[in-house]
Design goal:
156 residues; mainly alpha; 9 helices; 74% helix; 0% strand; elongated
Length: 156
């Protein structure tokens, strides 16, 4: 396969790349580097993608937050950290988290925590509590929510 692309070919390739799925700037730049483009060509192509609305960081952040919460049941902390890792601005992260309503967030948290608690077959209550808390914190839920929920589930 040809490893050298003209800027025009690279632009077309990246338009398809961005049209297939929302992308952040970092993913697009990494893809362009993999296509052996120069820094000037990369800047030019990124500007063209933004102007033609193939690349929109706010749209990416909102879509990412909605998808990871609804499909993978991630909490706000994990979503925030993943967006930061993709070099998304704090303003866009704040907007993205507003995409998740507090009712939806609470419902998802309750369903996931109850399913997790019931799936842990551990006789020792301290070990069960630790496994539950570790899992929910890894999913990105706030510690005060997790600890309140574990107290509530232990009462049942």
């Amino acid at each position: 396969m040809n490893s050298f692309f003209t800027p025009k070919e690279a632009l077309l390739k990246l338009e398809h790349f961005c049209a297939y799925q929302e992308r952040c700037h970092a993913e697009v730049v990494a893809k362009l580097y993999s296509l052996k483009m120069t820094s000037d060509e990369i800047d030019s192509i990124v500007v063209q993608l933004i102007e033609s609305n193939f690349l929109n960081e706010t749209r990416f952040a909102c879509s990412f937050a909605r998808g990871k919460h609804r499909i993978k049941f991630w909490g706000k902390i994990r979503i925030t950290n993943e967006l930061k890792a993709r070099q998304i601005s704090p303003a866009n992260i704040t907007l993205a988290l507003k995409e998740i309503s507090s009712e939806e967030y609470g419902d998802t948290f309750s369903q996931l925590s109850e399913r997790c608690w019931n799936s842990i077959h551990e006789k020792n209550i301290l070990k069960k509590r630790k496994k539950f808390c570790d899992y929910m914190l890894r999913r990105g839920y706030e510690s005060f929510l997790v600890y309140d929920k574990v107290k509530e589930l232990e009462q049942v």
